[in-house]
Amino acid sequence: MSISGRLYATQGMLAGFEHYRKQEEFQASFISASVISYRDLSLQPDSDNLEAPDFHYELNPQNLSDEISNIVNKNCGLAIANAYEVFESYFVVILSKYFEVNLAKMVDVGLLKALIILSSDEIKRIVKESNGKNNKGLIKIAKVLSPFFKSHESTNYLRVNILQWFDLLSMVRHTLVHNRQVISKGLLDYLEKNKANKSKELFERQFERKTIDGRVQIFLTTEKASDVLTWLNSFAHIIFKSLSIAQNLPISVPRYIPPPIWR
Description:
This protein is mostly helical. The protein has a domain of 182 residues. The chain is 56% helix and 8% strand. It is built from 10 helices and 6 strands, in the order αββββααααααααββα. The strands form 3 sheets. It has a two-stranded antiparallel sheet with strand order 1-4. A hairpin with a 2-residue loop joins β5 and β6. α1 packs antiparallel against α10, α2 crosses α7 and α2 packs parallel to α10. The chain is globular, with a radius of gyration of 24 Å.
């Protein structure tokens, strides 16, 4: 919620700044400029060792719209990567909590060879170590524990195979974090290899491609990033609902009630 809310707050503030600058009567040649610096660590502290490479960044009235778009894009990429990590932690915690009251199930899913008493921290450690690539280990556990979860893998409101979508998101997240959003050959190979799973269609549905600084990158808008976060929330909820049903617990979640417009 906070990640998504800050996306819209950032976009709103940047849009307001752009409108303000365009309405100004005085048009400066640049809005802001900056350089990067470093210290020569081989020199003594009392020497003049501050250096700046021959490169600078400039924000001016001519590139303002494009730069705001790029700033929003980078912010969206960071938001999705952060949300993915939050989801990953959530998945580990909710399975760990389930096993705390169903310790024998750890044997059923292959996490233990025989039933032994474990502390909460030890259960969490074992679950976390079983996550596997793209969290496929955790997904496998959830499918064994809950027929409800397994039955809604592709029969759901979104009308997509949510596990295949999550696998794609895992690959996208890797590109966002480790390749600075630049589309790699690995991602292209993945899309081609998994085209039967509609990975290409899902990718084009939620992500765009744009050439920035001479490289083709994953390009995101606030609206599309928010859509990804909504799907991720929905996936988190079906995990909660599935384990709650398996444990005969309530499945309701307290709903947000908006405050009155006038106070």
